[in-house]
Amino acid sequence: MSAILSADDLNDFISPGVACIKPVETLPETKNQENAYEVTTEDKVEPTDLPPAQISLTDCLACSGCVTSAEAVLISLQSHAEVLNTLDAYPEIPLIRDQNGTTINNAEDSGQGKIFVASVSPQVRASLATTYGISEKEAGYMIDQLLSGPQGLRSGGKNGNGFTWVVDTNVMREAVLVLTADEVSESLSPGEGESSLPKRPILSSACPGWICYAEKTHPFILPHLSQLKSPQALSGTFLKTVLSKSLGVDPSRIWHLAVMPCFDKKLEASREELTDVTWRQGDHSSSEAAPVRDVDCVITAREILSLASSRGFSLPSLPLQPLPSSFAPPFPEKTLESFVSFKRTRSEQSLATGTSGGYLHHVLMTFQSRNPGSQLVINRGRNVDVVEYVLMSKENQPILSTARYYGFRNIQNLVRKLKPARVSKLPGANPAARRRQPVSRNAASSGGAGSDYAYVEVMACPGGCTNGGGQIRVEDAREIVGSQGDGASESLKPSPHEQRAWLSRVDEAYYSMESESETELEVQLQQPSLADKEAKIHEGLQRWSQFMDIPLSKLAYTTYRKVESDVGKDQTPANDTTRVVELAGKIGGGW
């Protein structure tokens, strides 16, 4: 378990509704007492100092006792210590560069090593940039130097290992944005395959805290969830599939680290649906082999600080410049290298897109580009985290109604709007009568009811992903400044005003991404049209699918499941008679 994580760190926290099905202490086994008068000797007394039970992420996902961020408290792996232990436990697979690109040096490969790769979210870079007073671009260099550079993790440890490739999750985020717009368009155009599409309104599924909440408390929401993987999950699938095939290694020998702003991303990485079982085909998959996760470990921005301090150096001491070419090998598959090196422009990470990736913004811009002359009408909700957007045609007719809901308090209001009407069992009741849905005070012009939306961007954290529970807090920044200065750092708890001011600075760093050079700035000023950009993304996804010979539906899409609790249920196995009685009861029969 990460030492920096506690329940007090989790913002917008929802308390557990029922007891955890995994006890926090180990109970002795119950023995049949054949002789009630047996004398117990000292050697038969049960020990009282039993070891505590180990609770894994898989246990958490199989339980509905807790919701959202509460489960992160139970995490025993996926911390900065796990990263260091893995780097020390396995040697790095040696790579060479030749006329064919990057390949494995089979002569020096022991067969026990791993290839270490990482993906980093832009929200983490913004958090580090605010903490150290640097730009987001320089924060990206800092992370690259830490994970891959000669003065970072490679300077210590048992094997001197580092990460061979560090990619930006914005690469796969752009793919998810394009596929999201396609998903919404198909849902509004009835035709073949409509049954396989999510129900309207389509709800974004990139936030694991929101998904965990829906699966465990409101299963009627699941048919509405977007079936696309999150940028983190899609990055893991892309790296594991392409690297394993191009380098000729098993996916289990590729270790993928994701650096994210949210602790709940650790839970997402442990989902059974996000393993190689979903995309491996033919003889490659074995029922006896353990599934290989697409993302092996997730750490947060605050754990980046712990990762550096554990090796005895500070992040500001690292060079704020690109990696030397010797530590940045080219991607082994040349046909997909341009797809991996895709970079977002300033306009694609702006105030209009929001702090969570711009899913809703991209959907609106896509439909607006298809309807020339249309205008966007914005209706503010009760707070800044609830906004409704209606795209109106030139004739002032609604084309598309969407919304944004951030924070669990607002999410609960959205869920109530989507909750199906309860059918009355009273005689003579009208089965077609529906319960009146609550509407927001500013929703009159857009219909207001949740079912009227075509798409809703849902995030668990108020303010979006820059306010994730794993981001560096203002009190953490105070300690860093105090340790670098005269040591007189303030220990007082920051006021709400200071916390809001800090979050505003993180948002500003997220929006103020810089260009690499004047040449790149000129390229940004000549941005391709939205249609050209979508065509390029579709082309890259198609090349990926063809290279792997796997349908895109298995690479980019996922599923969800209702999670039922075993709390209070008899855990003893049922006999044949009990099973027959249960089956008879389910089909309406009886004994």
TrEMBL record:
Residues 114-469 form the Iron hydrogenase large subunit C-terminal domain. Keywords: 4Fe-4S, Iron, Iron-sulfur, Metal-binding. InterPro entries: Cytosolic_Fe-S_CAF, Fe_hydrogenase, Fe_hydrogenase_lsu_C. Residues 425-449 are annotated as: Disordered. One of its GO terms (molecular function) is metal ion binding. Component of the cytosolic Fe/S protein assembly machinery. Required for maturation of extramitochondrial Fe/S proteins. May play a role in the transfer of pre-assembled Fe/S clusters to target apoproteins. Belongs to the NARF family. This is Cytosolic Fe-S cluster assembly factor NAR1.
